[in-house]
Design goal:
The protein has 14 helices and 9 strands. By secondary structure, the protein is an alpha/beta fold. A 7-stranded parallel β-sheet has the order 6-5-4-3-2-1-7. A two-stranded antiparallel sheet has the order 8-9. Bound molecules: iron/sulfur cluster (2 copies). One iron/sulfur cluster binds near residues 355 and 356. One iron/sulfur cluster (SF4) binds near residues 78 and 178.
């Protein structure tokens, strides 16, 4: 799907009126990210996740994933060079009733949290109902968006605990990176502002991709933006691996990749910003891995998380291939989890050499192995 036309571009909110945490008398307001009773819910989910890990590792000895990751659509109105997902051209999507049934099964199987993504999830007009189904089945519900439709398709904010909005650079530079030159940055910022006002309980993260298009200064600029807007910031890393070489889009990804020395420098810079009070939520464990130029860790992400393509196929992360035998239309989620094929896929992860640093795989794997630096730095993030 192409970018929206210029005539479709309309902002509901003046970019100059971004809400900051400073009131009209120049007094700093209480941060929207402070610890609250609502946030304690999150700890229930963390503890539930820990119980699942312990059960899976020491009792059942089979995977018992607790994170439900769902590409609700593969359609998108951007064209990012680093995107793998745009090459997944299956147009089919699970219907809302199928999704509602699936999320009820996820509850039964003990999933604690969900991440709803795409493509651009807000292109689905029923996205609010999808988020509601996740929320009503007790999952701590997160979503990831490019921000274009935040203001107009906004009611998901009633049922979403946390939204990741992609911002890779300030202003027009971001629009160029994302292949949407019709004012994506302004729309995303205005959309964040809208959600801060109307859905104060929803945590908002800017998710910024580190690649050759940003340097220390642009990273600092994004950190300042988040601090001024009183929202949180998470960096993902554009890092390929020779094993991706056969994948569509590999060449573009490779061009955007920082080498390990540059990455180590930028990670050091991000860590300095974080410890100077900028609202950066990457763990020190994650940043130290990059600073120390490590290239391998034993991954356990597929034992903790199940990922589904929009048509209901299970996604195998180490080759991004759909597993069409394990489709939620053909069998229940419980039967997929118990199947030999799924158990093999999940257990093969520890032999994976890709060492992803673009999502939570590194942190999650550190927790899985009870690696003390991982526990310490993730606990620090959880309580702040
Ligand atoms: S916004 Fe996301 S899904 Fe869309 S092209 Fe960019 S990376 Fe891909
Ligand atoms: S490192 Fe982990 S998350 Fe990444 S592809 Fe390998 S098994 Fe999957």
């Amino acid at each position: 799907m192409g970018c929206p036309t210029e005539t479709e571009f309309k902002t509901e909110h003046d970019i100059q009126k971004i809400t900051t945490n400073i009131d009209e008398n120049n007094v700093i307001k209480e941060s929207r990210n402070k610890m609250s009773t609502d946030r304690l819910r999150y700890f229930g989910h963390l503890i539930g996740g820990l119980k699942s890990v312990l059960y899976s590792r020491f009792l059942a000895k089979t995977p018992r994933p607790f994170t439900f990751s769902h590409m609700v659509t593969n359609k998108c109105n951007c064209d990012c060079d680093f995107c793998f997902w745009k090459y997944h051209t299956n147009e089919e999507e699970l219907t809302l009733p199928e999704i509602q049934k699936l999320y009820a099964q996820a509850k039964k199987e003990g999933f604690m949290n969900s991440i709803l993504w795409g493509g651009e999830p807000l292109l689905r007009q029923d996205f609010t109902e999808i988020a509601k189904a996740s929320h009503d089945n007790g999952m701590y519900t997160k979503m990831a968006t490019n921000g274009w439709y935040l203001s107009e398709n906004h009611e998901f904010g009633n049922y979403t605990d946390l939204a990741f909005v992609s911002i890779d650079a300030i202003g027009e530079k971001h629009d160029i990176i994302r292949g949407n030159r019709f004012g994506l940055y302004d729309r995303a910022i205005n959309g964040i502002d809208f959600h801060k006002k109307h859905y104060p309980k929803m945590r908002i993260y800017i998710c910024a991709t580190v690649s050759t298009v940003n340097d220390a200064q642009s990273i600092t600029d994004i950190a300042k933006l988040c601090k001024d807007m009183d929202i949180l910031l998470y960096f993902t890393i554009n890092k390929s691996n020779q094993d991706f070489a056969e994948w569509s889009g590999f060449d573009k990804l490779k061009q955007l990749e920082r080498d390990e020395n540059q990455l180590a420098e930028l990670a050091r810079h991000i860590k300095t910003l974080k410890h100077s009070g900028y609202p950066i939520r990457n763990s020190d464990y994650f940043l130290d891995y990059l600073i120390e130029k490590k290239n391998y860790y034993e991954c356990h992400w597929p034992q903790a998380a199940m990922v589904f393509y929009s048509n209901g196929d299970l996604l195998k992360c180490y080759d991004r291939q759909p597993v069409s035998n394990l489709n939620v239309r053909k069998m229940s989620l419980g039967d997929i989890i118990k199947s030999e094929e799924f158990i093999n896929i999940a257990n093969q992860c520890k032999d994976c050499k890709l060492a992803c640093v673009g999502n939570y795989a590194l942190d999650c794997s550190g927790l899985w192995r009870f690696d003390w630096p991982a526990i310490k730095s993730i606990a620090q993030i959880a309580i702040t």
